[in-house]
Amino acid sequence: MSSDDNTPQGEQTPGNDLPDHVKETAIALVSAYADHNREELDRVVPRAADDVDDVHSELRVIAAFLGRRVQGTGVVWKPADSREAVARTVAEMLPPELEFAVSTAWEAHSVGEEEAAERFAQGDPMVFVHMLAAFCAAIGLAVYKRAELVSTLRQVSGLSG
């Protein structure tokens, strides 16, 4: 990482050890949700499913990164705010049964109920990918304009352009 990327020394950032195509896929999911672009989401989902564990891992790091950015701005994100934001972000982007699973899994996750979140996901790891991508889009847009969000994620992930 370059020293001019505004990332404090020692701060964990997205993409530390993952292949570029995984980083691209994670950012593309966030971008599709940020744009409410269902067609783009439909194009990216198969790539995400192919690398589901790595994409999930990358999205967890992106979510933590954006969470720290939001805290730095003073914007307050309570569990209720994130539940509403994720539900609003996935609305009409997913088939109803998946939308319900993502929203309810995020509700449980946002209050630390990981076992309940697992139950709502019904063994589908893509539920967690969708909920994290939707959360990243929602929380990212609370801090950045859309173009800034994508370019910031690309920069901190070590991707060019």
TrEMBL record:
It comes from the Bacteria. Keywords: Membrane, Transmembrane, Transmembrane helix. The chain crosses the membrane at residues 126-144. Residues 1-21 are annotated as: Disordered. Residues 1-15 have a biased composition (Polar residues). This is Uncharacterized protein. It comes from Nocardiopsis terrae. The lineage of its organism: Bacteria, Bacillati, Actinomycetota, Actinomycetes, Streptosporangiales.
